[in-house]
Batch of 4 targets.
Target 1
Amino acid sequence: MEIAGDLMKIVVTIGGSILVQNNNSKNFKEYSEIISQLNTEHKLYVVVGGGKPAREYISMARDLGASEALCDDMGIDVTRLNARLLIMALGDLAFPEVPHNFREAMEYSEAGKLIVMGGTEPAHSTDAVGSILAEFVGADLLINATSVDGLYDKDPHKYEDAVMIKEITASNMMDMLSNKDTKAGTYEFFDRTAIGIIKRSNIKTRIVNGKEPENILKAVFENIGTTIIPG
Ligand code: UTP
């Protein structure tokens, strides 16, 4: 597949729900191959989510009376474990440590290796980490690999006539997401912190179905999924 072109800085955010399935390492392997391929032509930074294990740990912590911030903190630990697994799959290509914040990410990337990180602090999801990292590195493109094809005008799980939106401004997307939940483990489809960052820095963003890892390659040049445009 054609991935060459001018070198771009690309931040890829991979939802935990697509990476971690049935305690199987297969998706980590597949993603590591796609990332390695893309990294030959472009400079990549990767952020991974927590998925089901994060939600399970958060649920146990909540049952034990933990605050929402502490529940988020548990979720962050799980995203970092997932980041470590992806680093293992990437081998020598990746920096061996998971940065805990953006300064560390910048510092570690000086070594010339690919940076893989998870969460940073409570009150947002790894979508937000991806968008902030995109600001830090001045990314040309942010690709968000999630478990659906893109943004729909209404919940596609509830409504058969839901239509996927191919292109949307950050402002319109912010309006659409304004009533969503913000509890630990439940930052729905795309969190508002992320969209706020994308809006203020005009970060070109593509949301694609990550169940097909090849979609990450396609997203570099093809208008697949939902593209968030300035405005
Ligand atoms: P995720 O960002 O993975 O959220 O982080 P998610 O909604 O479960 O998304 P998928 O399943 O990966 O697609 C898991 C949880 O970790 C906490 C939040 O509670 C989040 O729901 N978290 C993560 C933070 O508090 N801060 C972060 O920077 C990242």
Note: Strands lie at 9-14, 43-48, 115-117, 141-146, 167-169, 205-209, 226-229.
Target 2
Amino acid sequence: MATPEQQKFATQIDANQQALIARLAEAVAIPSVSGDARYRKACFDMADWLLASLTKLGAKGELRPLGKQNLEGQQIELPPVILADYGNDPKKKTILVYGHYDVQPALKSDGWEHEPFKLTFDEKSGRMYGRGSTDDKGPILGWINVIEAHQQVGVDLPVNLKICFEGMEESGSVGLDDLVEKEKDAFFKGIDAICISDNYWLGTKKPCLTHGLRGIQYFKLAINGPGADLHSGVFGGVVHEPMTDLFAIMSKLVTPQGKILIPGINELVAPLTDEEKKRYDVMEFQISDIDEATGSQTAISDEKQQVLMGRMRYPSLSLHGIEGAFSEPGTKTVIPSRVVGKFSVRLVPDMTPEKVVEVVEKYINEEWKKLGSKNTMRLDAEPGGKPWLADPNHYNYRAASKATETVYGVKPDLTREGGSIPVSLTFSEILGKNLLLLPMGRSNDGAHSINEKLDISNYIKGTQLLGLYLHEVANAA
Ligand code: BES
Ligand code: ZN
């Protein structure tokens, strides 16, 4: 049951819906793609826009520079982190909220129905389409909406907020770990609990709370051969071809059934306990949720438990792409001279990026030797992210569960997720506080895909949920 103050806040969010949607439209229009140097200025614009919104509401914040990075051979300035305080009443709890303002790349020509950086409405379904709508601009604006609505109805925010919005999450959160370490006894001091809204419901109907994420280790496997691209009529059958070498190695990493073939990887996985196994039974989920989210019927298994465990508690290896391969339409008869294969492993407890790099390097070196190729091979491991698992028997989760029941009228499922948010483990370890993932969007939102969307109802109710969570956590013990 909501208190009168909570009710006032929630009613204001409903009443102010149009303005909140306009705010999201403004944010989506700034193409803050962190992975492409051409959009770096937009990342800075997005950070300025957010800081201005927070400052206008009376938050005390700043943009923290993180130094430079090397992107596509260029040294460029990293997008800044926004650190802001809202309230500093020693009698109140202090909650750290985190989200990211950078987004995945998006081009209309990728197959989007509308311009990706223009929030577009489908009145009938109540959906708002646009890059970043669900991942993660809707959720970060949720926090701003919460502060604003409290002011509008004259209700005091029941906690102090520390706000951390970063602009490199989609590109591995470069520089953020160092900042957290540096600021642990300064900006991050005095935090009681942490809340991140950057994940999704398991399906499309029932909300959830998430207490685990997989980590990630990304690899680039470069094969260098001839000094230039060659004519396959003249040199086919004559030289060792880089792409053939690359396919030979990449085909030995994982089976079409998803089994990782690298010796030593599966042994790193924490064993499944009976108690954990039962959790997958009670989660509200059907194979059709996967079908809907993928727009296909391509799930590896038909068994609910298997599918859930494949996403939440086992590692996976995905092949992402090949730089340098001929990928245009037409039938160019080329032998590419250099190709770079990209793949990544999603990590679960007790895997660490270091151990995974070690076994992958050993295996690929052995397999490379077996090829007997005269080309050269180089394997690069990108900075990795460890998996994260939190204790859901904490007041932080009880508060979020209560708030979910008030807003949605159901008890949320307790899930783990397959994606990664690199800073989640950093926060938990360095700050030593409980962390909760409280999602706004649904499983079929299409994060990272074409036609990414957020349902208006998820944006509005999701904002109410963030606000009511703050009310519940303020008094929880
Ligand atoms: N919002 C996702 C994380 C996520 C994905 C949570 C799926 C729950 C389910 C986040 O923005 C993301 O995509 N992270 C990257 C991190 C990577 C670049 C280190 C990811 O998981 O690929
Ligand atoms: Zn995200």
Note: The chain has 14 helices and 20 strands.
Target 3
Amino acid sequence: MTSQNLARTIEQAREAALEELRGLTGEEGLEEWRVRYLGRRGRLTAALRSLGTLAQEERRVVGAQANQAKALLEESLAQARRRVRESRIAGLAQEERIDVTRPGRPVAMGRFHPLTRILREICDAFESMGFQVVEGPEVEWDRYNFEMLNIPRDHPARDMWNTLWIDQEDDEGRQSMLLRTHTSPMQARTMERVKPPVRVIVPGKCYRYEATDATHEWHFYQVEGLAVDEGITLANLKGTLYEFARRLFGAERKVRFRCDYFPFVEPGVEMAIDCFACEGAGCRICREAGWIEILGAGMVHPKVLEGVGYDPAVHTGFAFGMGPERIAMLKYGIEDIRLFYSNDLRFLRQF
Ligand code: YSA
């Protein structure tokens, strides 16, 4: 190619490029334009590559013209990019303009699950009586769930708690780990850790392999209570639980204590409250009893105290384990325990 032809080619490429650039409004179009003129196979780049075919003097003159054209196109591209970016931002600002006069959208307020509420109320009531809240593991050793509570293997009392076992065997090939059936294992765990006086309550989840009905779930909460000191008697237990019932249900609610059996207490009692639905007359909810049992309790068995290294001749204590679901049912007039775990918003929104 002659030097005049090459100079013309450069001139034409430059004019065409500038002309095209003026019509471009998008970033994609600008990139395509760059590839077409300034890319490795672009029109101007090809012209620059042909410079090598010219004589030295011609190459100097046409080369200077080519470099100027290249610099001009690069600068024009940079300007075009700025222009496109600015107009995009201006467009966005226009689109997203905030109308401060529009009414705000209502904020959806969350609320506590009724069981969370009742657990907090129970804990508050006992904390104000000097108890401290502690928590323990839901996956428990047989040793704590049964043996340290005076329930050795093959003891018939184990039948009261149909258990969900974990695949974990001890040295003798016997199952040794389970989902705890009650919060009572925390009695031994706490007493192993601290010396008397002890005053703790333990909220937590429990599991039993049992059929569900209006008052029974296979997983449910319990709140355990334990007080050990010198001179603690059954009167202290009754006084504490009466005060608790008064705070939660009001002074007019009836409370009943009856003897009950738990291997880890002596003597043992159960506490019930008159049925909210039939006021004691007997109905489906209370299984015609007129009363709904809410907790088991008693004086800590001397063997349990000895097992953790306490001297039962010096220290005595009471313990209790209650079901917060049953307490919430009584307090809010809920007829079926399964409602707590069905995640039905029509139910939950009422609290
Ligand atoms: C007894 C004496 C003590 O010194 C300390 C604690 C206890 C309680 C004992 N550990 C226990 O679990 N007794 S219990 O089987 O009668 O359960 C206690 C409470 O848990 C019941 O009164 C009931 O309110 C609740 N509960 C038991 N099984 C339940 C349940 N709630 C819902 N669904 C179930 N399946």
Note: The chain is about 40% helix and 20% strand.
Target 4
Amino acid sequence: MQNRDKFTTSLGVLTATLGSAVGLGNIWKFPYFTGQYGGAAFIVIYLICVVLAGIPVMVSEFVIGRRANSNPVGAFKKLAPGSAWYLIGYSGIAASFLIMLFYTSVAGWVYSYIFRALGGTFINTSPETTVGVFGKLITSYYEPIVWQIIVLIVVSSIIIAGVQKGIERMTKTLMPILFVLLLLCDIRALTLPGAQKGIEFLFKPDFVKLNREVIIIALGLAFFKLSVGMGTMVTYGSYFDNRQNLPATAIKVALSDILVSMMAGLAIFPAVFAFGFEPDAGPGLLFITIPMVFSKMPLGNILLTIFFLLTAIAATTAMMSLLEVPVAYLVEEKGFSRPTATIMSAVTIALLGSTASLSADAGSLLGTVKIFGKTFFDLYDYISSNILMPVGGLFTVLFIVWILGKKSLALELSNNGQLNNKGVVNLFYTVVKYITPLLIIIIFLDSIGILKF
Ligand code: PFF
């Protein structure tokens, strides 16, 4: 335990953490929700959730991870010995596993689309072809599973390489590339004639569309987007050294993440409107509308390849943080070597994850099998995003206030007194003591239908 691998630079801390936050969530969830739920009005609600819940939980997780210098289960055991708080750690491991089951499946589709675009599948495509290509892929009995396994091999290789040589090095290289590629797509989309309508769709505030459901969605998105409530940031925080300014890191990550989401929206919607398509939802937008839209542009096929490449990068760096959670646990608590822990986790994800790949569409092999009224694919998403993440986030902030206490918190946030940030500590403490838990409790009870207001 003395020689734990750590991030070596502040830049590495930032790119790794941002790499976790930026993912599939930015490329289709954020733009779609924003358009659907009132443009700038939704962004305002989302920002409030980020500020009052997302950032506070992220900082709390950093505090717990760095203070304990340990994986989520070990961290709670160390900071609250003999108590049951370590169960939050297990809930985090369960959540990261469940997310991996469907996330690797969607990432597999993205990987396959890089090669499809490169091979010219979508040149001069028609709506029928594009719908057909996607339908054929996700209803195939083997192709999505093969891609899912490829994804897992890529992510596992990086994780086996280690925190510094794998995660830090890869995110330092990949995050700037992702940014440049996204900028290229933005420039192309924004210079199309008729781009204006897409910008309006994304940013015109429409407060009429705001309702209770939108607030629940905004909070869920804030958690998923910032990768909080499930031990990822406890794990990454445990790789930070004592010079890192925790609140500043969280704020930088949250702001950059929002920037990437906005840039993704600006790459997608102007083009969608310029060519007269409908801003469709979810997977349809990414895998059906986008290939059609890009195929209509000059140099569209190259741009389409670039677009899927950047989406694959975003998904891959996010999955690295997901896989690191069980791996850190297995290495530190169960004594496995890093390669063994990684391979064990990846094989389990591949086996269970095939049920997600085979239930993504009604026409898939397991597409009609329902548990609690949901397909495997939807069930994994629902349990992790709607139950484990908010509950994990809630108990994390309760832990900071009631178990860790303000004194230890102040020491951790000020890097043992090196930073003069009493004001920040007081503000943070007030928010995590009163506002964040209340917000999460109300929204959580409402979302699972216990409280109706
Ligand atoms: N933040 C990622 C996204 O927006 O796609 C998803 C994610 C990654 C969630 C890692 C949770 C996590 F621990």
Note: The CA atoms of residues 26 and 261 lie 5 Å apart.
